[in-house]
Please model this.
Amino acid sequence: MAFDLPELPYGRDGLAPHISEETLNFHHGKHHNAYVTNLNKMIDGTDLANASLEEIVNAAAGDASKAGLFNNAAQVWNHTFYWHSMKPGGGGAPHGKVAELIDRDFGSYDAFATEFKAAGGGQFGSGWAWLVLKDGKLAITKTPNAETPLTEAGVTPLLTMDVWEHAYYLDYQNSRPNYMASFLDNLVNWDFANQNLADAS
Ligand code: MN
Model:
């Protein structure tokens, strides 16, 4: 069964001016769509043709002969997770359970924000910064290219920030730091993090 490009949870102009409609036209309409198209070609007629996306990502992870399949399947999953990690009118200090855990595990929201931006800024080249739940505690991680904490046992992704240049170049040119600051100040969807925390418990 072929996968469809998931709808954005807001309009393509919904994150403007922080992320423009033009960026989402390319990022969702071209990049994410290409990963879906490639994935469908790769699983067609194989024993993974009817598997779930999560099953495909995990089946291909760590298998060099399935690197292309892993890259496309994981990028489909990562991007869908990223779209939900943002919302119109989002950003700023967290609330609810994730706020409590950020204070407990990082000391303060400011300390969390500094570490999260350091993870995104420290990812050389393309990749992702993540807030995850690991062994009952919050942690920040970064992954290169299509790599995803979805494949790590005992790790639940809560939020992600795409730091591939295609995520920010049209709006912020080379300034990944300005994009990351805007992600936290104006876009991050703490409701999604809280939902993922609730689902994990
Ligand atoms: Mn991307």
